[in-house]
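ugh ok fine here u go
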Amino acid sequence: MHTQSPATTPATRPALPKLKLVLHSLSLLAAALVANGFWSSLPAFADVFSSFGAELPLLTQLVVDYPQAVWNILRSGLAHQLAWLLLWIAVRERWAHIGLLLASLVAWLLVALQIVAVYLPIFSLSTVV
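structure:
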């Protein structure tokens, strides 16, 4: 027979796994650094793309035309990851850790989408040459 455990109080909460805390914190920091690096290099990529003379793929054109919107989307993903990290630290429940994992996945998918958008013209030009 399954018995329910009493509600956990701050004194009875399990200790935070330090490795998970460090990995999630490093993941947030790395995603922020990669996102900022690519976002700050967008003007240089825009100049390179304009020198190609070829039409850019739609995804790349959107990233080049609306860099502030791209940055706002990336910041939103990173803010969600930070919010879930803080929530997981505060409540130490499994559902908060699952939310943190999903937020981390979304943040890294947004960063990957930005990287693909920046390098897509290079791949499309390689098929022409």
